[in-house]
Design goal:
Blueprint: E1 5-8, E2 13-15, E3 18-21, E4 26-29, E5 37-40, E6 43-48, E7 53-55, E8 58-61, E9 73-79, E10 89-91, E11 94-96, E12 100-106, E13 116-118, E14 121-123, E15 127-131, E16 139-141, E17 144-146, E18 150-154, H1 161-167, E19 169-170, E20 173-175, E21 179-183
Length: 188
């Protein structure tokens, strides 16, 4: 499939697809808290407030548009203000050539992003998995994350949160990365 998948307040499953995504501008989102909130939609799969399942897919930028360039996010999951906890399942996928393979963002006063990221191969992405803010604590296990700047990139450290996140990163294979696990706040 060429294009972008957008899911809102969904428990959908995306399975056995090849997603060759492009830059499609912005997705607008409005609810009781937001009026025309915009999220960049240069992603294969964008999920907002959604406990999605993505499995057995190949996700990468469209090579005919982005020849030899790392672009966008293969999968981005947003849990916004006023939302409940969600537990997405991302498993058995091949994610290639993205700026960010899997991006998780749980906004302040929104629910946590829990769930599981397992048995994926993330290769030749700038960042394999990015855990962006306060309440993203998925189990990250049995993945192969290779040839990236940061295999797992954590932007925020808050007391015991960093150790909880590190405890959830188990049995992964890291190879050819500049850093296997990186935390911005610690600079290591």
């Amino acid at each position: 499939m060429k294009g972008n998948i957008f899911l809102l307040n969904s428990n959908s499953t995306v399975e056995r697809l090849s997603v060759l995504y492009k830059d499609s501008g912005f997705v607008s989102y409005s609810d009781a808290y937001y009026s025309d909130f915009k999220i960049i939609n240069g992603a294969g799969i964008t999920a907002i407030n959604s406990a999605i399942t993505v499995k057995n897919c190949i996700i990468m930028p469209d090579p005919y548009i982005f020849e030899n360039a790392k672009f966008g996010k293969a999968i981005q999951v947003w849990n916004l203000y006023g939302s409940q906890d969600i537990s997405p399942a991302i498993e058995n996928n091949l994610i290639l050539n993205a700026d960010t393979g899997i991006y998780l963002f749980s906004q302040a006063f929104g629910g946590a992003i829990l769930g599981e990221i397992r048995n994926n191969t993330l290769d030749l992405n700038r960042y394999g998995i990015v855990i962006r803010m306060h309440k993203e604590k998925p189990l990250i296990r049995d993945n192969e994350i290779i040839n990236s700047i940061n295999a797992v990139h954590i932007t925020y450290e808050d007391g015991t949160l960093l150790q909880e996140r590190l405890n959830n990163i188990v049995n992964n294979t890291f190879s050819g990365n500049t850093d296997d696990i990186w935390c911005d706040e610690l600079g290591e």
